[in-house]
Amino acid sequence: MEGTSRYIELAEAAVAAALPSADERPVELSAAVRYAVESGGKRIRPQICLAAAVAAGGRAEDALAAAAAIELLHSYTLVHDDLPAMDGDVERRGRPTVWKQFGETTALLAGDALQALAFRAAARSPRNAAAVVAALAEAAAGVVRGQADEFAARTAGAPPPSDDFVVRHKTADLFVAAAAMGALAAGASPADVDRLRAYALNLGLAFQYEDDLIDGDGTLPREETERRVEETTAAACAALDGLPGDAAYLRNLANRLKGRLQ
User: Fold this and answer.
1) Which positions ≥6 away from 129 have C-beta within 8 Å?
2) How many domains does the chain have?
3) Euclidean distance between CA atoms 239 and 250, whole angstroms
4) Which residues contact 42 (CB under 8 A, 6 or more apart)?
5) What CATH code is carried by the domain that includes residue 228?
6) What does the alpha-carbon distance between residue 240 and residue 178 come to, in Å, rounded to a whole number?
7) Most CB within 10 Å of its CB: which of 80, 84, 120, 121?
8) CA of residue 214 relative to chain centroid, distance
9) What span, in angstroms and rounded, lies between the C-alpha atoms of 57 and 196?
10) Pairing of strands 95-96, 91-92
């Protein structure tokens, strides 16, 4: 089984290679893009992408372009989510958000640039590039749908939606894309891509339910949320059965994420 540090090192190198140089014009935009990505995230989605390639019978190196793409797309969603027109957050991961640091206009453009860079990286996948790009596009559209649904409820003064539409699209869609892109980059069979999609969907749901427990702001009673964490984590691990490669990292990741509350 590959180690966490190796996957993170591979992901960091792949993401860094996909970013504009510090002196690329306009310099402030390049700085904002780099600031957004170099903010100390856990790189969970690229880890899923790289580990999915291994679980599908390939190598982590097969999915470097895909791993960079999913992290760049994730960073774009965070930059836009923090804007005053959305959540208006002024701090993320212990430092000013991009719009607070660089201004709203530059932050908006930085998010746009990150999305474009994500698709450029995905298109560089050495295998199944068109399918990798399509999986990324599906996630990008899904995140927007989830954000729009959540924002509509907030604007109307209604409570957050109690179904899983927002959870699935704002959180799980990126997990699903990460796993599918990694598998496709490794040349996985359609059946194995589907197994990894099922794993990642349940992992994404479990991840968000666990976040609800940590933050104490979920729409469901605590007991029901805890039950869903256990249920979706178990379903994620079960989906890994039958894969041709080593899926131990993905299985351990699911259990590790479930234990964030402890």
Assistant:
1) 122, 123
2) 1
3) 11
4) none
5) 1.10.600.10
6) 15
7) 121
8) 19
9) 12
10) antiparallel
- Residue 33 CA to residue 144 CA, distance in Å, equals 20
pLDDT in tens, 74-115: 999 999 999 999 999 999 989 999 999 999 999 999 999 999
State the residue range of the domain holding 252: 4-261
Alpha helices of 86-172 — where are they, by DSSP H? 98-102, 104-123, 129-155, 165-166
- Residues 40-70 have pLDDT tens digits of 788 999 999 999 999 999 999 999 999 999 9
Q: Is the peptide bond before 26 cis (omega within 30 degrees of 0)?
A: yes
Token pair in block for residue 111: 């998010």
Cβ distance 173 to 139 under 8 Å? yes
Is pTM beyond 0.90? Reply is: yes
- Tell me how far apart the alpha carbons of residues 117 and 112 are, in angstroms, rounded to a whole number: 9
Token pair of 96 as six digits: 């000013």
Query: Which tokens hold the place of 116?
Result: 């474009």
